[in-house]
Design a protein that fits this description.
The chain is an alpha/beta fold. The chain contains 6 helices and 12 strands.
């Protein structure tokens, strides 16, 4: 090293990288990029990140991009399993007391589910699980019924898979959109959900295995509920009897979203339309906050 050369200090590198965004015309983008640089550099300094570890991180990001497609979103799995999805959700949804709590959308949501009639089944294959009659009301925080609210619902079957994970499955299997009636009531025929592992054959799965974590989620049904004049809520119905409620790999369980299914024998005198054999039922009200 010559006399007019000197080593660049870490703080100088960080400062230069942050300064490179000073002329960004978008104030919010400038804030995000400078904060990203500051925290990313602080992580490297705190952990004394090695070159081999840096290369491994780059390979992992490359593998994540390569495995992601229209049916699989590995980047969302990273966000979910690191708790970032639930953190962003908590920051974005400050709701009044009594409103239904939100949770993650997950990697298997597909927009444009078919519109279905009151009480219609979402199952478009033979036996997808124990039939589950799910019903309730959509209300405002004062207890008034909301007419014409839309419930966008999707779930897995007893094979632990969502339809988007199975190329041979009908695209709308175990998916549907339902509208509330004049009195705010809705009903749909689902199946009792079962616990399932998130896809763990990719980079996220390798991280979970290497760190001693499991890939399992407790049994749940997804819902996005929308109505004009109200905040849209993305939420779950969790089976209160499920495994993994205390160790959901995406940290999405909230006590207010736990529900208990009621079991009905095959000779129950009032089964849902088309149901033969054992079935379960669940009453679940949704309370929407005003969109102010």
């Amino acid at each position: 090293m010559t006399s007019n050369q000197k080593a660049t200090a870490p703080a100088e590198i960080t400062g230069a990288a942050m300064a490179s965004f000073v002329n960004c015309p978008d104030e919010r983008l400038r804030e995000l990029m400078q904060s990203l640089v500051r925290h990313l550099h602080a992580f490297a300094i705190e952990t004394r990140l090695s070159e081999d570890e840096w290369r491994a991180m780059i390979r992992t990001l490359t593998d994540t991009g390569e495995i992601t497609d229209e049916r699989r979103q590995e980047f969302i799995l990273w966000s979910d399993t690191l708790g970032l999805s639930m953190l962003v959700d908590a920051l974005a949804h400050e709701l009044p007391a009594g409103a239904t709590e939100s949770t993650v959308v997950g990697p298997f949501y597909v927009p444009g589910s078919p519109l279905r009639e009151y009480g219609e089944s979402m199952a478009e294959e033979g036996s997808a699980g124990i039939p589950a009659w799910v019903h309730g009301r959509v209300l405002d925080i004062d207890g008034n019924s909301i007419r014409g609210a839309e419930l966008d619902v999707w779930q897995n079957g007893d094979d632990r898979l969502y339809a988007v994970q199975r190329p041979e499955a009908p695209e709308s299997h175990l998916r549907g959109r339902y509208a509330t009636r004049d009195d705010g009531t809705y009903a749909l025929l689902a199946v009792r959900p079962v616990p399932y592992p998130i896809p763990d054959d990719g980079p996220v799965g390798k991280m979970l295995a290497a760190t001693g974590r499991h890939p399992w989620r407790p049994a749940h049904i997804h819902m996005i509920v929308r109505a004009p004049g109200y905040k849209t809520v993305t939420t779950h119905i969790f089976d209160a009897e499920s495994e993994y409620l205390d160790s959901d790999t995406v940290f999405a369980v909230k006590p207010s979203l736990l529900r208990r299914f009621t079991t009905h024998a095959a000779d129950d005198p009032d089964p849902p339309p088309g149901v033969v054999g054992e079935w379960v039922s669940l009453e679940n009200d949704i309370v929407l906050a005003p969109d102010r």
